[in-house]
Amino acid sequence: MNIDRLKEIREDRDYLQKDIAKHLKIKQQQYSEYEIGKRLIPINYISELADFYNVSIDYLLSKTDIKKPYPKSLMSKK
């Protein structure tokens, strides 16, 4: 995962690491380790951050430069 994007989007939105850690209900140190690549970020946190920032998971993972999230699946409406 391109960890640079996590820091970039956080700073672009004027959040501190402690703000994001609080949102994820984790310690700031743990979130810091995700940003520096010391620890792998779990998929549930990636999904939560994509929703929080209103971007696609692919954008957070640097698979695309398009920020817009994908439309909700028909399967999720069941």
What is the name of the CATH superfamily? lambda repressor-like DNA-binding domains
Q: Total domains, how many?
A: 1
Strand content is: under 5%
Average predicted confidence as pLDDT: 88
How would a crystallographer describe the biggest sheet?
Answer: none
Query: Which segments are poorly predicted (pLDDT under 50) over 5 or more consecutive residues?
Result: none
Shape: globular
Structural account:
The protein has one domain: 434 Repressor (Amino-terminal Domain). The protein is built from five helices and no strands. It is globular and about 35 Å long. The chain has 78 residues and is mostly helical. Helix 2 (17-24) packs across helix 3 (28-35). It is 51% helix and 0% strand. The model has no long low-confidence stretch (mean pLDDT 88). The protein has helices at residues 4-12, 17-24, 28-35, 43-53, 57-60.
Write the layout of secondary structure elements.
Blueprint: H1 4-12, H2 17-24, H3 28-35, H4 43-53, H5 57-60
Helix pairs in contact: 2-3
Main attributes of the structure:
78 residues; mainly alpha; 434 Repressor (Amino-terminal Domain); 5 helices; 51% helix; globular
How would you concisely characterize the structure shown here?
The protein has 5 helices and no strands.
